């Protein structure tokens, strides 16, 4: 029991260390912080206040929503109270019976606050109303009405913008937890799987990748987070994907690929991060969005292929089995890319592949009814 607890703690610490070392998390968040930013640059966030408000967390947006209205009601309530005091309308000032107040039934701070709330929200219960004998009160009610409308428009706009933000659409697009390397149509390919969980399409979808790693130049200069382009494609090309069902994207490992120099026994010793991007426009909202994920060497399985997940039933309808979305099977694969391209039929990696506890490996023989498309 003690050994099991220690193993769980060790695995948890390893997972946390891996998450901290990522630039992009599996869910697309960028793991980066900015230090020593000049104080004057912080005012740029105030100048671009709309984007700042939209990017606030919901808890802060709701706080500003409540605070902006409540504070404006209270401030204008104080001004109404000051006007009533200057006009002698308050109860403790003992106004005469013939006295004409600036606002009917505003005789203390609470009634001034209630009149401010009723004015700005256009409630108009009828118990409190302005009279035409105080020019300052007439001016104030116009100012409060305009400011109240500005606050209404701004806060409603922020909330609507946050609700319709494209990031939420990206939540319904998912990538496989692992990438695999195996032969495909006489090429050695790195493959990942992506699925759109909604039936509405992503228009003009494009897929591409960036390989991030530390590079040391011949002159000794060290480039941290050096970026290399990684091209992904499907059988029909790489642009304008028909994203109606899960797709298997592949990158051909040839002599121009940074994966060409890697092998099955050296892959997991490498230090790099493969960031994959999917850009598209949501069909229902016509808003552009980007989905991101990343893969580290420990999440790339050499000598495995994804299980087929698309089949067709007796009625002729296509069916997607998402239980096999991230499941893989071992396949015969060359030990390295050089062996694959220069020694055809030789140096094939064992059919047993590399054991990985992250995935449930299923033998192909257990899937006799699957139709690969």
Automatic annotation (TrEMBL):
Pfam families: IRK, IRK_C. The record marks 152 as: Role in the control of polyamine-mediated channel gating and in the blocking by intracellular magnesium. Signal peptide: none annotated. It comes from the Eukaryota. It catalyses: K(+)(in) = K(+)(out). The keyword Calcium does not apply. Residues 24-166 form the Potassium channel inwardly rectifying transmembrane domain. Keywords: Cell membrane, Ion channel, Ion transport, Membrane, Potassium, Potassium transport, Transmembrane, Transmembrane helix, Transport, Voltage-gated channel. The keyword Chloroplast does not apply. GO terms for cellular component: monoatomic ion channel complex; plasma membrane. One of its GO terms (molecular function) is ATP-activated inward rectifier potassium channel activity. It is a multi-pass membrane protein. It is found in: Cell membrane; Membrane. Its main location: membrane. The chain crosses the membrane at residues 60-83, 137-161. GO terms for biological process: nervous system development; potassium ion import across plasma membrane; regulation of monoatomic ion transmembrane transport. Residues 173-342 form the Inward rectifier potassium channel C-terminal domain. Belongs to the inward rectifier-type potassium channel (TC 1.A.2.1) family. This is ATP-sensitive inward rectifier potassium channel 1-like. It comes from Salvelinus namaycush (Lake trout). The gene is LOC120018142.
